[in-house]
Design brief:
Elements (H helix, E strand, L loop, with lengths): L1 H18 L4 H6 L1 H14 L21 E3 L5 E5 L20 E3 L6 E3 L12 E3 L4 E5 L12 E3 L4 E3 L14 E3 L12 H4 L5 E3 L6 E3 L12 E3 L4 E3 L14 E3 L21 E3 L6 E2 L13 E3 L4 E4 L13 E3 L4 E4 L13 E3 L4 E4 L3 H4 L6 E3 L4 E2 L15 E3 L21 E3 L22 E3 L6 E3 L12 E3 L4 E5 L12 E3 L4 E5 L4 H4 L11 E3 L22 H30 L1 H11 L10 E6 L10 H7 L6 E4 L3 E7 L5 E7 L10 H12 L9 E7 L2 E7 L6 H6 L11 H20 L12 E3 L5 E3 L2 H7 L22 H4 L4 H17 L14 H6 L8 H4 L2 H4 L3 H17 L10 H13 L2
Parallel strand pairs: 2-3, 3-5, 4-6, 5-7, 6-8, 7-9, 9-10, 10-12, 11-13, 12-14, 14-15, 15-17, 16-18, 17-19, 18-20, 19-21, 20-22, 21-23, 22-24, 23-25, 25-26, 26-27, 27-29, 28-30, 29-31, 30-32, 32-33
Antiparallel strand pairs: 1-2, 34-38, 35-36, 36-37, 37-39, 38-39, 40-41
Helix pairs in contact: 1-3, 10-13, 12-15, 12-20, 15-19, 19-20
This protein binds 2-acetamido-2-deoxy-beta-D-glucopyranose (9 copies).
Length: 898
């Protein structure tokens, strides 16, 4: 049948060619190429390659996506990002082809063996498709090939030995497939090899000993495999290496001294392996080094002072190893250092003041070591420090008053040390403190300073297990963002002030303070302070919210900052726009400085003045996160909006205002039933408002965890399954556009009146674009419990990471349990709890929500199938997780097989 079609195409093509004699150039070339292209165009539906183009007297060499040789043979075809699929066999007839780029399409099935006929081929890019099966050994015949890219497909089996004929290869990219077996030795014999990537596969065995020995290898990335043995010395032999990424394998042995040969080496990422030995002193020879990450190994010895010579070093992560000794003070010479992470070692001595005085330092994590000495007075003399993490050490002395200079801090961890003295009131000057203030398990005494009440952004406050005295001051009611408090095991006295965050805390937050009374404790304070009738019992969830929002701080801060910079930089333009948008001249009414509605036919329906006014009334509040509050706003036009109000945090950094507007606009054009689109934005005073459609049924989290507890709740498995399909479709669509979501959680999935799910917070994902730049090293992984395990090593949110988070949401729907729950036990989240069921001797049925799984045999069967999908999605190995599109298919299959 297909042959017949082809015949017809060729015939028609030929006939039209006869009727409209094409200019002689074509005949000079090869009439065959023309017919081949028409047939390919028809098979793949390439716009611009249709037959009627033949009537055009100019030749096919001017068609889109095509380049010809001087004598009219097709030499180069670039058909990327066109969503093409179909049979590619015919391409092998274009005998002069040197360059073939089919990346970012949806081609599937095996890679055509017939490509082996393209003997002139130098560049072959089949990446980002759905090719499956094994790599055809026939490709070994393409001896002129310089670049082979098969990344991001579904290829299985091993890397064939038969490819050893590809002696001219410069670039070999095989990442994100399911290739297994070992890396063949011929790869090491390639004399021109510059780029070799095979990360996120299932490769095992050793890295070939001769890799790099004969070639000028520049980039080697093999992370997330099962590779063992040591890092071959030869990798560094030629001294040209620029990037080395071997994270998350089973490598052993030492980091070879020869690493010092590579003057251009800028990135070394060897974390999460079993490496041993010292860091070689030759590391100091790497003047270009910007990124050194070797956490979670078994490295030992001292932190070599030669690091100081790496003046471009931005991140040094040596966490969870066996390093001992002190932090050499010369490390202060690394003037570009932004993050120093050495937690979980056996380091001791003083906190290095030279490092702290570095102007670029953003994060210092010395926790879980044996640092003794005291916190230096110069702690924040000149720093941008946002994270000061000194917990679980042996620090002594007082907390210096100068801690108040750390005005940029988001998190301050000093717990589990031997700190004495009182809590300095200057701590109230750290107005940015948001994620946590932890002074627990020390020897602090005296009263709580009233200035603590000034920390109005702080979410988590832990002062437990000290010797603090006096009352809990009423001034602490100024801590408006507080969710999690702990005052337990001190000598505090008097009534617990009536303040929602206190009353919502479990009584364990106040226990072991003999003089303390009032709700949530059971001890009465006399008549004036009876128990309050608050909705109590805050549980683990609060803690989760805290941790989750902590992680999100950066995201929100950044967005807000972008918005403000935008405002400040565009003050002039703003005034003009403002006049247009501002309609209310009420004095109490803030002035909208800048705003826009992206959706043309809603422009008339939205009145910024009314939007702003509505967000000033608490009665319109639907939900309140720590960094944003959501309001329901009704327009006189009848339109109902959900308005997200972002709070001002910081007005520094970033010059991305135009980019932000463009991105918001672009996102507003994203058309998918399962994605929430931004409708517009408005800015006034220090507040930014993002406008979205209003969704009456709230979030999936509410649906799962609150409505299922209500009286008269009806088991709803089919609804949940269809929600799962919808969410998966929304995410698959985002991935198709190469957009990675930064915060998938049931709290960010909303339900419309038909319980159709819509994924929210898409704009955050796009605006931050974590794939670019190292500036935001501390960028964000999402909400606690949903964060994929590999994030700890890669610090990158990826599509497989999204699949993991989706898997957690699916587990949530199957079990009606939160992603983290005290009941799971210490350090166990929902994923681990589900995965651990077999070892606990529980059957899958025992973890499913029995209210659903016992309704009918069909429901139970479907839930078990969905559980399989969820387990695939939450596989520890990112490469093993299915792509989002595959997830959609698997879930749809469950729906259809009813
Ligand atoms: C023929 O094709 C060329 C290139 O696609 C185009 O520039 C030209 O306008 C076309 N001529 C006609 C008559 O369609
Ligand atoms: C692709 O087309 C060729 C003929 O052009 C045919 O032999 C082959 O079977 C087709 N492949 C598939 C997967 O349909
Ligand atoms: C595939 O690899 C080649 C060689 O490294 C590279 O030039 C090309 O950009 C890659 N393709 C994609 C889509 O990244
Ligand atoms: C590689 O995977 C294939 C299935 O894709 C399997 O048949 C084969 O045994 C595996 N080989 C190794 C060495 O694990
Ligand atoms: C690689 O080259 C070495 C010598 O240069 C040779 O002995 C060996 O057989 C080659 N290996 C492969 C797999 O081609
Ligand atoms: C490389 O490092 C070693 C050890 O630190 C040092 O002795 C040597 O001089 C360095 N070589 C160069 C070229 O900088
Ligand atoms: C450090 O980085 C800058 C900017 O990337 C670069 O220009 C400079 O050459 C680097 N310094 C060294 C010693 O490599
Ligand atoms: C780490 O190294 C120490 C000493 O070299 C050894 O005792 C220990 O077993 C190693 N641990 C692992 C997990 O390899
Ligand atoms: C810190 O610990 C080291 C090693 O145990 C010890 O030599 C040093 O005297 C201690 N310093 C202080 C200030 O306690």
């Amino acid at each position: 049948m297909e042959n017949l079609c082809l015949f017809l195409i060729l015939t028609i093509g030929f006939l039209s060619w006869c009727q409209n004699p094409v200019n002689s150039e074509v005949i000079n070339g090869d009439g065959d190429d023309l017919f081949t292209l028409i047939a390919i165009g028809k098979e793949l539906k390439v716009v611009g390659w249709e037959e009627d183009k033949l009537k055009n007297t100019s030749n096919y060499c001017s068609w889109p996506h095509i380049t010809c040789t001087s004598n009219q043979f097709v030499e180069k075809i670039v058909l990327s990002h066109l969503n093409l699929q179909g049979n590619l066999t015919l391409i092998s007839r274009l005998k002069s082809l040197k360059w073939l780029d089919l990346s970012f399409n949806t081609f599937h099935g095996p890679i055509p063996q017939s490509f082996a006929n393209l003997l002139d081929l130098e560049f072959l890019d089949l990446s980002y498709n759905k090719f499956d099966g094994s790599v055809p050994i026939e490709l070994g015949k393409l001896i002129k090939l310089k670049s082979l890219n098969l990344s991001n497909n579904l290829l299985t089996g091993s890397i064939p030995n038969e490819l050893e004929g590809l002696v001219n290869l410069q670039d070999l990219q095989l990442y994100t497939n399911s290739l297994n077996g070992s890396i063949p030795n011929w790869v090491g014999n390639l004399t021109n090899l510059r780029v070799f990537t095979a990360y996120e596969n299932e490769l095992s065995g050793k890295i070939p000993e001769n890799l790099g020995a004969f070639s000028e290898l520049q980039l080697l990335n093999l992370h997330s495999n099962y590779l063992e043995g040591s890092i071959p010395k030869n990798v560094f032999a030629n001294g040209k290496l620029e990037f080395l990424v071997l994270t998350q394998n089973k490598l052993s042995g030492v980091l070879p001294d020869s690493v010092g040969n590579c003057k251009d080496l800028s990135s070394i990422r060897i974390g999460d392996n079993g490496l041993i030995g010292n860091i070689p002193k030759e590391i100091g020879n790497l003047s270009s080094l910007t990124y050194f990450e070797a956490d979670n190994n078994n490295l030992s010895g001292e932190i070599v002072q030669e690091f100081a010579q790496c003046s471009n070093l931005t991140l040094l992560n040596l966490a969870s190893n066996g390093f001992s000794g002190i932090i050499p003070s010369v490390l202060g010479e690394m003037i570009n250092l932004q993050e120093l992470i050495v937690s979980g070692n056996s380091l001791f001595g003083e906190i290095p003041t030279s490092v702290l005085s570095n102007n670029n330092l953003n994060k210092i994590d010395l926790s879980n070591n044996r640092f003794n000495g005291s916190i230096p007075q110069s702690v924040c003399n000149s720093s941008r420090l946002q994270y000061l993490l000194l917990g679980q050490n042996s620090l002594t002395g007082r907390i210096p008053n100068e801690i108040g200079n750390c005005v940029k801090l988001l998190e301050l961890q000093l717990g589990s040390n031997y700190l004495t003295g009182t809590i300095p009131p200057e701590i109230g000057k750290i107005k940015n403190l948001q994620i946590a203030l932890n002074l627990s398990f020390n020897r602090l005494h005296g009263e709580l300073p009233l200035d603590l009440g000034k920390l109005d952004k702080l979410v988590s406050l832990d002062l437990s297990n000290n010797q603090l005295t006096g009352n809990i001051p009423l001034a602490l009611k100024g801590m408006l963002s507080l969710i999690d408090v702990n005052f337990a095991n001190n000598h505090l006295t008097g009534p617990i002030p009536t303040f929602a965050p206190f009353q919502k805390s479990p009584n364990s937050s106040f226990l072991k303070n003999e003089g303390l009374c009032g709700y949530p404790l059971t001890s009465f304070c006399g008549s004036s302070n009876g128990p309050q009738s608050f909705n109590h019992k805050v549980s683990y969830k609060t803690v989760l919210v805290v941790i989750g929002s902590g992680l999100l701080v950066f995201t929100s801060v950044t967005i807000v900052v972008i918005l403000f910079t935008m405002r400040e930089n565009q003050e002039k333009l703003a005034k003009m726009v403002g006049k247009e948008d501002e309609e209310v001249n009420d004095d109490s009414q803030p002035f909208v400085i800048l705003g826009n509605v992206f959706v043309e036919n809603l422009k008339q329906a939205i009145d910024f003045g009314i939007v702003v006014k509505a967000t000033l009334k608490d009665s319109n509040k639907i939900s309140s996160g720590t960094f944003s509050t959501i309001y329901k706003v009704e327009m006189p036009s009848g339109l109902t909006l959900s308005v997200k109000r972002l709070k001002s945090v910081d007005k520094t950094i970033l010059h991305q205002q135009n980019k932000m507007i463009r991105e918001l606009e672009r996102l507003s054009n994203l058309c998918h039933d399962n994605l929430i689109r931004p409708i517009g934005f408005a800015i006034y005073d220090d507040v930014a408002l993002l406008l979205h459609q209003f969704l009456p049924n709230g979030s999936l989290a509410r649906f799962l965890h609150e409505s299922s507890k209500e009286q008269g709740y009806k088991p709803d498995w089919p609804v949940r399954l269809s929600i799962a399909v919808g969410v998966a479709e929304g995410l698959a669509y985002l991935h198709h556009l190469a957009i990675i979501h930064l915060d998938i959680s049931s709290g960010n999935i909303f339900l419309d009146s038909n319980f159709n799910p819509l994924v929210g917070e898409v704009e955050i994902s796009k605006l931050l674009d974590p794939s670019r730049g190292t500036a935001s090293i501390s960028a964000i992984a999402g909400s606690f419990g949903y964060i994929p395990p590999e994030y700890a090593y890669t610090m990158q949110v990826t599509a497989p990471g999204n699949v993991y988070s989706f898997g957690v949401v699916l587990l949530e729907m199957l079990t009606t349990r939160a992603p983290v729950d005290e009941e799971f036990g210490e350090g166990v989240d929902l994923v681990k709890w589900v995965q651990g069921a077999p070892t606990r001797g529980e059957t899958p049925e025992q973890i499913l929500d029995a209210k659903l799984s016992t309704v009918s045999f069909t429901w139970r069967k479907e839930m078990l199938s969905a559980l399989k999908v969820a387990l695939l999605c939450t596989d520890k190995i990112p490469a093993k997780r299915p792509k989002m599109k595959k997830v959609v298919e698997m879930l749809q299959e469950i729906v259809e097989n009813k």
